[in-house]
Amino acid sequence: MTTTQFELGIMGLGTMGRNLALNCADHGYFVAGFDVGAKAVESFNTAGDGTQKIKGFTELKDFVGSLKAPRAIVILVPASVVDTAIESLTPLLQEGDILIDSGNSHYVDTDRRIKLLQDKKLHFMGMGISGGEEGARFGPSMMPGGNKTAYERIRPVLEAVCAKVNNEPCVAYMGEGSAGHYVKMVHNGIEYGIMQLLAESYDFMKHGLGLSNERLHSTFQHWSQGPLKGFLMEITAEIFTHKDEETQGFLIDKILDAAKQKGTGMWASQDAMSLHVPIPTIDTAVCMRDLSVLKADRVALSNYCPSAFLASRQSEDPSVDATFIDQLELALGMAILVTYTQGMSLIKVASEAYQYNINLSKVAKIWRGGCIIRSNLLEPIAEAFEKNSQLSTLLLDESLREWLRDRYQALCGVLAKGIEFEIPLAAFSSSLAYYQAYHRASLPSNLIQAQRDYFGAHTYERLDKSGTFHTQWNPEIKKEVNHALV
After folding, report:
1. What is the pLDDT of residue 2?
2. In terms of domains, do 164 and 299 share one?
3. How many angstroms from the chain centroid is the CA of residue 62?
């Protein structure tokens, strides 16, 4: 084996980098790995099958020198050190080499890095990877963006190692610039929304209906075999029966109810606001994680104003009507589809604003396998955008519109029960409000426009004629109001 035999380089041999490299080797590719940690490299070198398809390096110059030109290097390091990695690699690279950042980098940083390396005649790509450790090892969903020619150089490798659904690879070119990282950011926002909806369903059944962990397991397991089948549903079912090694009780009951986050959901919310795209279910999921961390305040307030309903709940009621749990399944399905709808709307608007030219049907298709938000619902979503690539919202697709309509009353009923049970169903509520507002020909925003014009002369538009208008509202009252505010 010569020193230039390796077809792909992977910088960062943590779990994700190591697993992706082994995945590539399994598919016949020769992969060089680099890590500053000698133990990580040693472990990597002993992980192969003896065919010498992988080799780890601790010296960066040797690592880069072992790669075939034009070199393609996947960077799998924490987002905080990506710039440092680029700075160390750049002096060793040649014109036409490709760097691929596969961490959870903010798309704004990706755009900056593309421009920086473009000036040096190097290609930089942002590629979101979803699927966790197992996905990296056996087939993730991959979202590459950037220079199309650079993508074609690595496309055969990506199509070989990614997940497959109906023999279709769960990887596709997302678009120019930072399109890959943008799509991954929205993927994570949708993930936040679905996880919050599943958590609220758990809360509703555990504390509202009094279901045991065993029954929660069987309920989520049943749901994971129907229209809501998906990775998050499946792992949620399994969580409820996992025992704690120390106490032999259920582990779920020992875990602190304060959820952490790495910021990708927040980025999605922030960018949606800057683009004026409503994604309230995702926004709410981010807010509820923030609220969950305020544990001390929540405990204090629970003592000050305890829930009368929860105080009266003793144990599981075996007489809980199974049909009502079926209604919760319908409500959950509607709210999850609404969450996907919000995410897809954000990608569509961003694609136009940032000139990504993203194919939304391809996005839905590559999310069907390998990734965290994979579910059966992505099939009809892909079909909807395949029928009409110009859909401004999935709510306008006839099939999905009817699917949602059939579940509308169930969602209303679940929210009514949530109020009775004193269970906060914030994401469910946001999903319903979004759906209802979208189906209103008239919203009360005319009053907001009048208020803005009253106190700030911001003008307004009219229904009966075109143009912008300003009204001199009651000047005496306005004067009194201003005086009172002062």
Report:
1. 45
2. no
3. 37
The answer to whether residues 134 and 207 belong to one domain is no
Please report the pLDDT score of residue 102 as a whole number.
96
pLDDT recorded at residue 476:
73
Residues in the chain with pLDDT < 70?
1-4, 49-51, 308-319, 477-486
7 is known as an active-site residue: no
Which residue among the candidates 184, 206, 348, 362 is catalytic per the annotation?
Answer: 184
Domain count, the chain: 3
pLDDT of 126: 97
Domain identity same for 405 and 282: yes
Q: Are residues 190 and 305 in the same domain?
A: yes
CATH number of the domain enclosing 480: 1.20.5.320
For residue 278, being part of any structural domain is answered with yes
CA 196 from chain centre, in angstroms, equals 12
Annotated active-site residue in 7, 176, 191, 329: 191
CA triplet 171, 173, 174: central angle to 5 degrees?
A: 105
Domain residue limits at 468: 445-485
| Per-residue pLDDT tens over the stretch 423-435 | 999 999 999 999 9
Q: What is the pTM of this model?
A: 0.94
Q: Do 210 and 89 fall within a single domain? A: no
Q: Give the whole-angstrom CA distance, residue 169 versus residue 165.
A: 7
How confident is the model over 376-416, as pLDDT tens digits?
Answer: 999 999 999 999 999 999 999 999 999 999 999 999 999 99
Domain assignment present for 3: no
Nearby residues of 423 by Cβ (< 8 Å), 6 or more positions away: 200, 203, 204, 207, 208
Active site residue 191: yes
